[in-house]
Design brief:
By secondary structure, the protein is mainly beta. It has 2 helices and 31 strands. The strands form 2 sheets. It has a 16-stranded antiparallel beta barrel with strand order 14-15-16-18-19-20-21-22-24-25-26-27-28-29-30-31. Strands 1, 2, 3, 4, 5, 6, 7, 8, 9, 10, 11, 12 and 13 form a 13-stranded antiparallel beta sheet that branches. The longest helix has 16 residues. The chain is elongated.
Amino acid sequence: MRKKLYLFSALAAFTTVFSMLQSQASADSTDVDLLNYLQAQKDYDRLHIKNKELTALRADINNEKFIRPIDPSKPAPIIFEGNNISYNSVNGDVYAKGDVKITHNYSRLTTDEMSGNANIGDVNIPDKAHMAQSGDLTTGDPDLLLNGYDTHYNYNTKKGSMENAAGSINDKQIKAQKLEFYPDEMIIYNGSITRCPAKVPDYHMSADKIEIWPDDHMVAYNAKFWIKNQVVYKKDRYITKIGRNAPEDNAGIPIHVSYNSDDGLHIRYDYDKDLTDKINAYINFNYYTKYDLRNVYGIKWTQDKASFRTEYGYYEDGNDHWIKKEPTLIFNYNTGIGHTPYSLGFSSEYGKWDDDIKSSWHRSETVSLSRAPIYLGSPKVRLYPDIGYTWTHESYDNSSSRNLYYDASVLYDINSRISAYTAYHYSRSTTQNSVFDYDYDDYSKKVTAGISYKFDDKNRVVIANEFDAGAGMKTMDRDYYWYHDFHCFDMELKYREKRNSWHVKFNLVHW
């Protein structure tokens, strides 16, 4: 006869969150980057998709709560089930064998045999154990599916360990020679992490030791990033923010691969090192088959809403204009205006610019005002306005210019498959009246428009257009995009009709 034993303790079973989010955006003349939120939403859905086993687990536990209601004012019980259970009410020893289940809240350990002590909250599983937890975003509990051996856990101290562990934490596949659990963190020893669920992952990160603080940060020691069986990046101490604390542009993996007809194959390799808690040095290695190396070197200081950096290297805009800065100094400050939906920005740059034809000491200051989205009758239709003013001086011809610019972008989610955008841009400065073409359009009044259609979860296409509003809406650019999910990496294929050029970019699906 199967038996069930209820024991109470102030436990929060193996609780940790592991999440690394990445969102990369690049400026484009047709404003297709306005649709980047669609990929961000897909990444979010991928992160929070529910496993069938965990869905069944939550339903089973909810059903048990319905049959035997639990007093919410008391600590959640630890429920022991097994074909054979013994419990010593004097010293608290517990033993169970045969189809053993240990359940607490929405977490469950299953095994064939266990021993422990209810008084001190110990559970010991010498053989194989399976741990499943249906997470909750509101409480920060992650989804867990782990298999391991020699598992020990104390429900009072919330400390434990598991040997030779493998499984998943949220959307991460992990392996560890040893896992250690603490009230506020989890430590992986001699382990690996990847978002690629294949049996032999296309990519992963390995480390001697990984310290994880839920929804805060992760530290990996002697970290190595792998593509297949090849190490592509190493770092003695790798730190990244995770979970809800992670910034939207947290890329995780420092290597990126793309190709286009103008530049050829492009391999970007990012390296950075924290000099202090506020100062970071970095190198963006860029290899192009048509240009060879075009690197960017920099050092950056960050303090709350302000940042200051100096950089040296090559830069390319969305219209294939190149500039070399040797070097440049850049200051940025952005802040919200009280409790209003408006934000104020200020930036200043001073440095030597070179485009292979001319060289100039470039100085510019920009003040900008932007607003949080305005809903046009529905959250599905959103307007994003901003306005700014720039002062520029060039030593090349001792010229000074003042540039008023303003932008208005509208996004419209028509239904679950179709989204569209349109934008109007005005800039007094253009390639026609500026010393450098870099980061300028050929005309002052520009309209962009595009539409996205999702065929299924793996395929999406976009048509994006750029028009000269000052020349009767003449079509200046028309680009076609195909986004495809290859399970462990994403591909972006682009054809630029007016330029007859092809571009392809591969993104690993967040390490």
